[in-house]
Model the fold of this input.
Amino acid sequence: MYEKYFIVNSLTDAILLKEKYAESSKFLAGGTDLVLEMERGLHSEIKQIIDISRVSGLDEIWMDDQLYIHIGPTATHSACLKSSLIQEFAHCLFQACEQVGSPQIRNRGTVAGNIATASPANDTISALMALDAKVELLSSTGKRIVEVSKFFMGVRKTSVQKYEVISDIYFKALKKNEYSCFIKVGLRNAQAISILNCAVLLGISDNKIIKSRIALGAVGPTVFRSAEAEASLINQIASDELFEKAGELAGNSANPISDIRASDEYRSKMISVHVKRALHQALESENGQIENPVVLWGKERSANAPLTENSIELDSNSTLNISINNKEYSFSGGFGKNLLDLIRENAILTGSKEGCGEGECGACTVYMDGVAVLACLIPAVRAHNSKITTIEGLSPKNELNKVQQSFIDEGAVQCGYCTPGFVMSAVKLLEEIPNPSVNEIKIGISGNLCRCTGYYKIISAIELAAKEKE
Done:
């Protein structure tokens, strides 16, 4: 278990701390992978966490005068979904971010964290590789640029050196004659690790393919590009036969394993099928702004909790100051807990539930600084000086929120254990999209599991709430 937790307000401070605690520290931005791994007993060497999630400006997504799109190291997957730049000029990355985990996971998980984890099944890596992205690494000695295709050294291994932190990810915006697509195959529609995935990019001029990139995920020890498949497309006119051949070459280049999710034979065969499908879909897709993707931010994204002028060092003797449901709390003894345990055990607010303890079920959904997140995946110390809303905070005057009332009216409660999480997601969804479609409702609650299989009533309850006035 970590002994010190640093909430820094600059990358300079983060790098200095990394140099001081080189062998025993870890950077944290979203932490959706790292927190779970530590709770499972991994990373026993970590004694210091260096949290960069509140450094001002690191969550921005912007385009420079050379038409490169930049993604800051704390920009979340949800931020990418809301970015008009990603929507219009990096369609495959938008699609990849859309399929990462659930809305609550996407609200904490970062693109930089996704590539730093370096799992061959991570979704955004394939998209970034198809976009020929570059990763900027910062240390006290300066900046170093690494092509994303050369960033990965093996399963969960990268070229990041001891004192470096990811400071930028950037790639050229796609032109009007360039098209991209990302496809993922998983065991379910949300909260699924890739069985396989692929991202493709095609550039067309005079009806001929002049640029091709094909990146394959979860079919080798790292995400990689299929050079032979790419070469087979150059100077050719797009056709079903051409794309089928490229898919076969991509499948031949795969070196997958067999595991609990799929066999190596299945992966090799299906990567061929889906590369062909992605090439077709890339040419058929229409890049453009998505009016209102579901992210569970509510009406607008809240800013991260403010910091003092200096970085903060916290340990087991520190007091955690947190606003919960507009009431100020000062907790001792919360260091080392996750936010859910702090809420239930220290604040004695037991409405939020632990169903899985690993970010799969959504029963612990709360709002942190206005955004829906999973309390089981957030260190309690991260919430220092933050504002938290739990299910108890939805009806402060003992009057039921309209979503709570609609769940009663529609009989959407069975055992009831999952209900607080569903209500929290639904309330935030209706703040964001007052009259959601059924598909938008399904996306909004995709991070919440009902083990009683009561989804039809839950959906109808949210539809009913959308019709009600406050």
